[in-house]
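Dear colleagues,

As part of the handover before I leave the project, I'm documenting each prediction I ran so the next person doesn't have to rerun anything. This entry is a single chain, and its sequence is reproduced below.
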Amino acid sequence: MACVRKYRGELVIDYRDADGRRHIERVSSKSEGLETLAEITKALRQGTFDPSRAKTLFKDYAAMWLQSRRSEITQSTFTSYEYALRVHVLPAFGDSEIGKIARAQVRFS
C-alpha cells in the first residue's frame, strides 16, 4: 500500500513498484506527496512506471537536503554543511545513485 507519512523525521511517500521493490522518497509537503503518489499510482496501473524515476543521484538529493535545512539552521552552520558537502562528500559520491552507495564506500572514502 502506498502512503504519505513521516519517516525518520521527514515527510516521505512510501510505495512498492510493479516488481515489489519498496521506494521511499522525500517530499516537502503533504500535498506534493499526494500529487506524486497519484502520478505513481496511475503509472503503475497503466504499466508505464519508469523505475529509473525513483533513482536519485546523491548530488541532487544533497542539494535538496541542504536547501530544506536552510531555514532551520544558522548561516554559519549552513556554510559549514555546504563546504563539507562541496569539498569532501560530493567529489566522492556526487554522481552515484543513492541506492548504490555501500556502507564500506562511506566508511573508507
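The two ends are 37 Å apart (CA to CA). The chain is about 50% helix and 15% strand.

All the best with the project,
I.
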